[in-house]
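job 3f2a | input accepted
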Amino acid sequence: MVVREGRGGTNQQGPGDHRYLLKFVLASGLSFLVGSVHGVLQLLPPIRAWLDSIGSPYGGPGHLIDPLAHAHINLIGGVTLLAMAVSYYLVSVIGGRPIHSRRLADLSFWTTVTGLASFYLILVIFGAWQGELLLANDPAIEQVHRLYSALVPVAATIMGAGIWMYLANLLLSFRGLRRDSSQPPTPGS
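job 3f2a | predicted structure (189 res):
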């Protein structure tokens, strides 16, 4: 068993302790659920007609809902979170030692999920809001778009930071594995 840093101090984590990955798998599944419901709803004839009337999928506010929000909840939420869990697991199991930092893994999860949820909600809410303003030919659409333009990069940066933390943790885990494999085996191993 290897002692590694953990939330609030040190904890013991061996290569077989992977329960922390369950939150990645659960969030992935929930993202696929949201994405599948989103996908079905956007194909219902009245919703599809409304989305088409506000520019989906080619431009205008409609493209924020379809394809941007739909794609991100499925690809980042469903696929990327699952890939994060699988790669953390595989590096640990195949490498025979824990990942570089469990604390960084947890932080990468919460940062990615917070950014993703914010990004998805901003896209859907502002896509619908701006879409209604577009249909009403309301000049307030410019103010709403400025607010959207200020919020969406913040959410995207948070989401990206979570993914970048994951990548850093993965690379640092590989670096540790390479260092271990370059040392000569000890007698009796």
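job 3f2a | The chain has one domain: 19-176.
job 3f2a | closed
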